[in-house]
Every structure is written in C-alpha cells, then in structure tokens.
Design goal:
12% strand, 5 strands, mainly alpha, two-stranded antiparallel sheet, rod-shaped, 3 helices
Length: 156
C-alpha cells in the first residue's frame, strides 16, 4: 500500500501554510503606451503617464489556523480511507484463501469418493502415515456419506 511518509505530509502542510499566509503585496499598473497598446506592469509608467493601479485580490478568508485544521481533517480522512482499503484487501485475501481451501477439500473428497466407489470392497486403504485399513460395508457407507456431505458443503 502506498502510504505518504509523515515528513512529506508535514513539509506539504508547511509549504501550503506559507503560500496561503503571504498575500501579494506588489501592485500592478495598467496604462496605454504611445502605440495604443495596453501595458500591464509591476512598475509605474516610466514617464509619469496616466495609469491605473490594479490591486491584488484580498487574501483568502480562511485563517492559517483554520487552513491547518482543515488540512489535518483531510489528512485524517485520507488515513481512514487507506485503513478501509487495507482492511478490504485483507478481507479479499482471506476470502480468496478460504475459497482455495474449500476447493482443495472438494477435490480431495471427490478423489476419495471415487476411490471408495470404484475399487472393490475388500481394498486396503491408507489411513495414516503407516496405517492401512479395510473398511467394513457399514464403515464404507458411512465414509461415502461423509464424503458426499463434504462435497455438498465445499463444491459450489
């Protein structure tokens, strides 16, 4: 997950604070030159020509403290969204693992059921690492019922 380091967020907030807190103090001048062209400049006309001073728009109505608080709120929202995405990702991975586990149980049950139904009833079956067993007809029927139940629950 891409997470913005705290130092980068802090630096961005400081830069935002400085940009928002310094209003433009230099004025602009508008006048018409000898050829009739309208000129805009930060310097007054060189020959005391008639000009109009254009003032900068007022600074933002929001105080730096409010701006900082709003930035913190947005940062908190961003963190909450990132946490929700991480949680959703974990749930997705968990669901994917459960699905894979169900499929494995399904495949194993189908394989075991095939072995029980296709082989002769007196076949030896491996139970543990070094354990072998011949099922009685009753045990075989119970095992088939159990495998059918596992298949019904896991093979969807």
């Amino acid at each position: 997950m891409n997470k913005i380091p705290a130092t980068t967020r802090f630096a961005a907030l400081v830069a935002l604070f400085f940009v928002a807190s310094f209003p433009v103090t230099a004025g602009m001048y508008r006048w018409t030159d000898d050829q009739g062209n309208v000129v805009y400049s930060q310097q007054p006309p060189p020959d005391n020509r008639e000009s109009k001073r254009i003032t900068a728009p007022p600074p933002p109505a929001e105080s730096p403290e409010n701006s900082l608080e709003r930035s913190r709120e947005l940062n908190d929202k961003l963190n909450a969204i990132q946490e929700e995405r991480a949680k959703a990702r974990q749930e997705h991975l968990k669901a994917k693992a459960e699905k894979k586990e169900r499929q494995t149980r399904c495949d194993n049950a189908r394989h075991d059921l095939k072995m029980l139904t296709e082989r002769p009833s007196n076949t030896l079956y491996r139970i543990g690492d070094n354990e072998w067993k011949r099922f009685t007809q009753e045990e075989r029927s119970e095992k088939i019922d159990q495998l059918n139940k596992v298949i019904k629950e896991n093979c969807k």
